TrEMBL record:
GO function term, MF aspect, one: DNA binding
Keywords in alphabetical order: DNA-binding, Phosphoprotein, Transcription, Transcription regulation
UniProt domain HTH luxR-type: residue ranges: 134-199
Name this protein carries in UniProt: Putative two-component response regulator
Species this protein is from: Gordonia amarae NBRC 15530
Modified residues (4-aspartylphosphate): 48
Highest taxon of source: Bacteria
Xref: SUPFAM superfamilies: C-terminal effector domain of the bipartite response regulators (SSF46894), CheY-like (SSF52172)
Gene3D superfamilies: 3.40.50.2300
Pfam families hit by this protein: GerE
């Protein structure tokens, strides 16, 4: 099964590829360059939700409509039923949880590709990330904190962040406070400067239709 990994941060793409390294007999990673689009036929385009628009965005529609992509799959924490319904209407073919192990992730992708089961939530009530990588991990940031900081670094307001990640405004504010404590800053300006200096500027900069 050929899989393209979709995210604007090279560290995220490479981390997910490393997570799947022991399953090369079942999965072939064919897209690792964060600065290019999918340009060869793939069975699955795995859209990592880190600092990315939700599944109902124009960006995901564009990915799902790509004739080179058989199945567009969302890799996320967000399993809100309304969000998933909009994403499936947008052309998405499957959902997998970020808390799945590498083996569970491969099983889920194969199941989606065979049209057996399209939604694969966490088997246990947990938000723990099993594998992969993200900017700021070495500084102690959780993936959720890092995602919020990445969007702050890109200039998004709190309201825009809630739309982007599918969280409530109060949850976003909670992540911002915990993030600020971890990186020892007290203002948004300081957080942006910290982010710029610690790899939170996307490796790929694009504009997507309505998201532009």
């Amino acid at each position: 099964m050929t899989v393209a990994l979709i995210n604007d941060y090279e560290v995220v793409v490479q981390g997910l590829a490393a997570m799947l390294r022991n399953y090369r007999d079942r999965v072939e990673i064919v897209e690792l360059d964060a600065n290019t689009s999918v340009n060869c036929p793939v069975d699955i385009a795995l859209y990592d939700s880190f600092a990315n628009p939700q599944g109902d965005s124009f960006r995901v529609h564009e990915l799902a409509a790509n004739p080179l992509v058989t199945d567009a799959v969302i890799y996320t924490w967000n399993f809100d039923e309304q969000s998933m319904a909009r994403a499936f209407e947008n052309g998405v073919h499957g959902y997998v949880a970020k808390s799945l192990t590498a083996g569970e992730l491969v099983d889920a992708l194969e199941s989606i590709h065979r049209r057996e089961q399209l939604v694969h939530p966490a088997r246990k009530a947990s938000s723990k990330i099993i594998g992969g990588d993200w900017p700021g991990r070495e500084e102690g940031l959780t993936q959720r904190e890092a995602e919020i900081l990445a969007l702050i670094t890109q200039g998004l307001s709190n309201a825009e962040i809630t739309e982007h990640v599918g969280l409530s405004i109060n949850s976003v504010k909670t992540y911002i406070r915990s993030c600020y404590r971890r990186i020892n800053v007290t203002s948004r300006t300081q957080a942006v400067l910290w982010g710029v200096n610690h790899g939170f500027v996307p490796d790929r900069s694009r504009q997507y239709g309505d998201d532009a």
